[in-house]
Design goal:
Homodimer. The protein is of the alpha/beta class. Helix content is about 35%, strand content about 15%. It has 2 domains: about 1-110, 3-Layer(aba) Sandwich (Cobalt-precorrin-4 Transmethylase, domain 1); about 115-285, Methyltransferase, Cobalt-precorrin-4 Transmethylase, Domain 2.
């Protein structure tokens, strides 16, 4: 059996009992380590699960999946992923590869940012399409995410923006020269995300994202009741001007608040507002939310 097991969002104790049983029965256990990160190191996982973990980087998961799936039709093999297994298309792909090889598969679900985002007080029913925001470079500034946000804005829906991470990435020079030298890990900050959003708005000039009239909520390390969890709400400009330390450690996510904003959402998220008066003013004046 090939198991793909969600680890949740916080630490080693977020594993489900079903997931832990599958790990203990497996002859090999891989830890996928590039679509997201846990808040703890690998050793703590190994001590808790009482299993040695094989680190699976991008190359192994995407181009060497046969190594992971080897003999999984005869014995139990597990692939551990942060969050929920279906939080990244990479994991869907490896399940399809296993099925093509007639290997029985089983998915063990867990919490992911897709549902833990509700911690900010916005109702999950009011979210539209989720988008990913990648690091801009001097020569590459993809803006397809803007069209998805625009579609959500027109429907009044909230948008969850997943911020880029760079793990085991090569510079253009090292890639061109075939040198296996990797850059230090990078995790997109809220400041970078907001700056790129507003830069794209200035380029597209379609009035979708306003620095002063668009509400947003920044999230860091949500899930599992972590003491490192941070939630900060405000306009895009307020988030851009806020001290970077206030957003906490990565990973970060950002929510663009939609116009179908309910007064209970305003009241709940107000707890996290940089400026409560500003938060309520924009919610009432721009979003048309009826507040007491």
């Amino acid at each position: 059996m090939f198991y793909i097991i969600g680890l949740g969002l916080s630490d080693e104790k977020d594993i489900t009992l079903r997931g832990l049983e599958a790990i203990k029965s497996s002859t090999r256990v891989y830890l996928e380590a590039y679509t997201s990160i846990l808040m703890i190191n690998q050793r703590r996982l190994e001590d808790f699960y009482q299993k040695q973990l094989i680190l699976a980087d991008r190359d192994m998961v995407e181009t060497q999946s046969d190594e992971i799936l080897k003999d999984a039709d005869k014995e139990d093999v597990s692939l551990l992923v942060v969050g929920d297994p279906f939080g990244a298309t990479t994991h869907t792909d490896i399940i399809l590869r296993a099925r093509a090889l007639n290997i029985p598969t089983r998915v063990v679900h867990n919490a992911s940012i897709m549902n833990a985002v509700g911690a900010c007080g916005l109702q999950l029913y009011n979210f539209g399409q989720t988008v990913s925001l990648v690091f801009f470079t001097d020569t590459w500034k993809p803006d397809s995410f803007y069209d998805r946000i625009k579609e959500n804005v027109k429907l009044g829906m909230h948008t969850l923006v997943l911020l880029d991470i760079k793990v085991k990435e090569q510079s253009e020079e090292n890639l061109a020269r075939g040198r296996k030298i990797y850059e230090p890990p990078r995790y997109m900050s809220i400041h970078t995300a907001v700056s790129q959003l507003l830069e794209t708005e200035a380029s597209r000039n379609e009035g979708i994202l306003s620095s002063t009239d668009t509400l947003a909520i920044a999230l860091s390390r949500v899930g599992g009741g972590s003491e490192n969890e941070r939630i900060v709400a405000g306009t895009l400009q307020e988030l851009r001007d806020h001290p970077s330390a206030a957003f906490g450690e990565p990973l970060h996510s950002l929510v663009i608040v939609g116009k179908r904003l309910h007064h209970l959402e305003v009241d709940y998220a107000e707890t996290y507002a940089i400026k409560r008066d500003s938060w309520r003013d924009v919610a009432s004046r721009v979003y048309g939310c009826a507040l007491d």
